[in-house]
Structure formats: C-alpha cells, structure tokens
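Render this sequence as a predicted structure.
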Amino acid sequence: MSKSTRLSRRTVLKGLGTAIALPWLEAMAPALSIAAPAAVRKPPTRMAFIYIPNGVNLDQWVPDKLGSDFDLPAVLQPLAPFKKDLLVLNGLTLNTARPNGDGPGDHARAMSAFLTGRQARKTSGADIRIGISVDQLAAEKVGSKTRFPSLELGIERGLNAGNCDSGYSCAYSANLSWRTESMPMAKEVNPRLVFERLFAGETKDEVKASREKRDRYKLSVLDFVMEDAGQLKTRLGANDQRKLDEYLSAVRELETRIARTGPPVEIGNAKLERPVGIPIDYQEHIRLMGDMLTLAFQVDLTRIATFVFANDGSNRSYKSIGVPDGHHDLSHHGGNPEKLAKLVQINRFHIGQLAYLLERMKAVKEADGTLLDHVMLVYGSGIGDGNRHNHDDLPILLAGHGGMIKTGRHLRYPAETPLTNLYVALLDRMGVHVDSFGDSKGRLEDV
C-alpha cells in the first residue's frame, strides 16, 4: 500500500452542521489488508429495488433466446453496455396482486405487493394492512451497520389516505416500502432534502445554522469541511488523494445541479414557487436521485434502498420524448399498434435511466472491482401487460454481481413461480437467512 495511515471505514469530514462520509479508500485497513479474512476485506453487499408502473410492452421486452446467447430486444437496448452485468428473468408471478376475490384495484395491489408478497386489505380508510417489505426485513437485520438502515426515494409523492384505486387506499399505490403491515416508509421526492439528509451533521441546531449560512453566502457543504479534508489528505497516499478529490468533486457537482432546479411554475396568471430541489425535467429528477443513491452506497451510508420512478397507475405524460399521452391511458392499448409503439418509447426511456444508474455505479472503483460488483439491483413492475392487468410473467431484471450473482443470462422459470422466491435468494446473499418470505415457495434457483 502507499504511505497512507490507517483509517476507520466510519471516518467522516466534519464541519458546522455537516458530516461527509468517505468512499472506500486504500487506507481503510484492515478492510483491504491481505492478512485479513476474505469476509473482512470484501466490500459489503448492497440491495436496491426500482419500481416502474403500468407494466410494459412485453413483445418488445422478452429476448428470443435463453441462456447467455441472447440479443436484447428494443426496450432493453439501452442496457447493451451492461449485458454481462444483467439477468433478464421471465416467468415470475405476483399472485397476491391478483384480485383473489377482491375485485378491481390491480394498480394498488401491484405496487403494495411487489416487495411484500402479501395481499392488501381492501380499504380506503385508516385500517390498511399489507405486510413488511423485503427491504425493511433486510434493514431490520443489517441496517444497524450503517447510518441509515434504508433509503426510500421516489419521483411522485402521492397520498397516504383516501381512495385512489377502486376502493383501495392511496397508501397502497404510493408506497413500495413497508416497515410493518400498516406502516409505509414514505419516499422522499425532493433531491435537496435527500442531499441534506445524506450530508447533514448530528444536531438539528447545527444543521439549521449550516443551511442558513450556505443559503445566505452561497456556500457549498464542502466549504464547511475543507479544513478537515486538507488535514486528511496529508495522511493519504497518492491514489487515495486522487479518489478523495474525485469524490468531493462529484459531491460539489451534484449540489450544483440541485441548486439549479426548481424555478417558478406558471399556472394561469399565477406563479407558484416550486419547492427548491425538485426539477421540472423528469429525466434530471430521476438522475439526481440515482446519483444520490450511488453516493449513499459508495460511502456506506446505507446498504438498502428503494426507488420508485412513478406510482402505479400514474398517468404522467412523456412530452420530452415525443409522447404527450398519459402513461396509464396508453397502457390500456387494446392491441393498438400506435399505442404499443408509444409504450415502447416510455419503457425504453425508463430503461435508459436504469442504464444511467448502472453506468454511475460501474464508474465507482471499489476494492477489487466496482460498486456495481457489490450491488444487487432488482428492476421491474407488479404488472406484466397493462392492458390485461396480469400479474404473471412479470418484467423483472436483476443487475449487479453482489452476492456472486451469475449475470449475463436470460432465464425463464416455470409458470406461477413466485417473485418472492427471488427475494429469499437475495436475502441469503445479504446474510439474512429466512425459510420463506411473503408467498414464496422456496429460493429462486440458478441466480
């Protein structure tokens, strides 16, 4: 190793109301000590879940061939650079998103059951009930190892009360993560608030003073820790100095992007101030959140995250890619070729944002590889085809090599294989061993 002195993995740069965790450095022995056990040297495994609404155009999603010799269809083409980092999984089913005697409400059931594997109680009142989600089960077991047990991100806030889908509470279609059967983990949609949370200090008074001073004098969070950073660099070798500079530059660039978002919104003759940090541009919003998820994993602030691109049933318009129609309306395509083509555009746009996130993770060097080598990322929807509202043969991807995932393949499982079988297998790789989860019937094989 270089001249670096030994550093704790929990070393942070501190300033007024600011605490900036550090990325993986060579100086963080014994984590990278050759003499240390392999389990100690290896970076931690992280787990993330990304949700998309309303299903996909399945004709343009499923590869023609199984195994490693497959071509990516139209929707998945943006993932071409990451084909070897990817598993395309077909045949998985979310039975608890089906009516099972409860009638309409597929969008609410799809999202609420996606990570829980449980049937939502049909109610629009306060007596909601679903079940703990897989991310929160993992957070209960390993969350104490990081500053934040889990991180919940989203683009659309939604409501936690009222009737949003055929007698189902809005809480079901607005929340992916559930701490208990009746307590959702509200997702944060404001990038600035996420940034503040990740880099805030320990006391509320200091955090408030730091924010006010930064706003008044147009300062960066880094301005409060530069003295600490300068002292640290004198203790680091050349490689670690370069990594630290690159990381701090990434933090400053992210903070600058957030500061540029949120101009006034015109509604008729009125001008309303958009909350600072929430971009007008949908793609920029997703990418800001994705960058912060990457940073949170990189500096080990959390090892578990969920990210909702849009609530299920969302009728968001995609004018920026030439699709002014509402997404939910288009998902009821009725076989119309024009609507199906527009769905491909929306599905491909979402996949493009996934590709961006994977690119960012793969660019982070960590120990013997990259951050993506130590991440398990599930991407998908609780609905297969939005027109049929089916919950079998779901569009599911698994990206990253965390837990020794054997990627670069297209796999098809027997009909009615529970999606939750995948989660049991992933929990094993997080060191959380359970016999079953939700409606699982075992562990998903061959991942």
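Summary. Residues 39-195+302-429 form a domain with the Alkaline Phosphatase, subunit A fold (CATH 3.40.720). DSSP finds twelve helices and 19 strands in the chain.
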